[in-house]
Specification:
Layout: H1 10-19, H2 27-41, E1 45-54, E2 57-63, H3 66-78, H4 82-89, E3 93-95, H5 108-113, E4 118-127, E5 132-140, H6 148-202, H7 206-220, H8 224-234
Antiparallel strand pairs: 1-2, 1-5, 3-4, 4-5
Helix pairs in contact: 2-6, 6-7, 6-8, 7-8
């Protein structure tokens, strides 16, 4: 999301973030605003990103460019790196020079090859009970890009990213549950319709009708919901052998 006009300093940017509302912005846009403002305010920052770590699974949920995404994903593939270290330990993690830092030897040389010579990752405390954490990552194209002032700015922005990331996770989880519930209700509805067809066709009880659908499911290796849907829409009952409880349709 664009951040025009640019803020003059960190205090103004923080005030702007404080005025933003999720009624005006999506959570993705709010995270993107945090990433954009961080890149604007930190001298030497090339690109920024926000990492979300949910029960050990990492993803980049906002970024200002492909370099940041590539560097994040390189760390995810290897299972370690400064952004994951910050997310896992809660420590502000600074790499002063990717060419000389001895940590993560299979990641930092790759970062240097792609033009990232220093980085800063500020931890995000999202939800310890749910094992959700994250990091606000800043990548620079020159070494020693982050002084004490830069670290302080990143630390002040991190809580905004943490709140937005936490809300994003809660929203996505709620949406997933709603979709599962909707699918379950739709399955229940079509199964009830199919049972009604069988009750009328074979003069069965509701329990006998469901058992007939279940046997058809076993014979065809298809879900009961699929058997029911086919019956409702075509009148054809797949894979169900004749039985005393459900005589063959004449």
């Amino acid at each position: 999301m664009a951040t025009d006009p640019q803020p003059a300093h960190a205090t103004e940017a923080l005030e702007r973030l404080g005025r933003l509302s999720l009624r005006q912005l999506s959570m993705e846009d709010l995270l993107q605003t945090v990433a954009d403002l961080t890149a604007t305010l930190l001298p030497g920052a090339a690109e920024t990103s926000v990492t979300l770590l949910v029960r050990g699974n990492a993803a980049t949920v906002a970024s200002t460019g492909q370099l940041a995404v590539h560097l994040d994903e390189t760390q995810y593939e290897r299972g370690h790196g400064p952004c994951l270290h910050a997310a896992r330990t809660g420590e502000l993690t600074v790499v002063a020079d990717t060419r000389t830092d001895g940590r993560w030897p299979d990641y930092l040389p790759r970062a240097a090859e792609h033009g990232c010579l220093s980085s800063l990752s500020a931890p995000l405390v999202v939800d310890e009970e749910e094992q959700i954490s994250g990091a606000l990552n800043v990548y620079a194209r020159r070494p020693d890009a982050f002084d004490e002032g830069s670290r302080a700015v990143a630390a002040r922005f991190a809580p905004y990213a943490a709140v937005a990331a936490g809300n994003l996770h809660v929203y996505q989880r709620a949406r997933g549950r709603a979709e599962h519930l909707r699918a379950a209700l739709e399955s229940r509805a079509v199964i009830e319709q199919a049972k009604g067809v069988l009750l009328e066709r074979y003069k069965l009880t509701p329990d006998q009708a469901f058992q007939f659908l279940a046997r058809a499911s076993m014979h065809t290796n298809r879900k009961v919901r699929d058997i029911a849907d086919h019956l409702v829409h075509t009148g054809e009952l797949l894979g169900a052998p004749p039985s005393p409880e459900a005589p063959a349709h004449p």
